[in-house]
Amino acid sequence: MSKYTPRFRQQRDSNHETIAEALQYHGCIVADLAEAGGGVPDLLVGYRGIIFLVEVKSPVGVLSPKQRSFFDSWIEYPALVLRSVDDVRHVMEVLRDAYDITAIDWSTLVPRGRRR
């Protein structure tokens, strides 16, 4: 089996490492998927038995057409756009304080206007 090597190195947002480190600081397991390309979000995150995807964007960044398509078709697990450590802190407060993790309304974790 050959190893997949992307043809071009994917560009990362300047806050990529900061957001990944902030998630780890809050107890998340983080796998970096930034090299996957094809609209796949940057991070696969695990926390207390749940898995969610994170697309890291700069404060003014927008989703590419491939990323929009991925988000629109990805319905099995939550997917978020995080732009700052404050976004991470907000998401983690909700997850940490949740009595029933399955009852979380993921659409409210990051305001709708900032999700895309």
Written description of the protein model:
Helices cover 31% and strands 17% of the residues. The protein has helices at 16-25, 65-73, 85-97, 112-115, and strands at residues 29-32, 43-47, 50-56, 79-82. The protein starts with 15 loop residues before the first helix and ends with a helix.
CATH topology: Trna Endonuclease, Chain: A, domain 1
- Output mean pLDDT: 82
For the record, the CATH class is Alpha Beta
The parts where pLDDT drops under 50 for at least 5 residues are 111-116
**Major beta sheet, strand line-up:** 1-2-3-4
End-to-end Cα distance, whole Å, is 36 Å
- Cα radius of gyration in angstroms: 14 Å
> Helix count, per DSSP?
4
**What is the number of domains?**
1
What is the molecular shape? globular
Structural key phrases:
116 residues, 4 helices, alpha+beta, 17% strand, disordered C terminus, globular, Trna Endonuclease, Chain: A, domain 1
Task: Give the gist of this structure.
Helix 1 runs parallel beside helix 3. The chain is built from four helices and four strands; from the N terminus they run αβββαβαα.
Helix and strand topology:
Blueprint: H1 16-25, E1 29-32, E2 43-47, E3 50-56, H2 65-73, E4 79-82, H3 85-97, H4 112-115
Parallel strand pairs: 3-4
Antiparallel strand pairs: 1-2, 2-3
Helix pairs in contact: 1-3
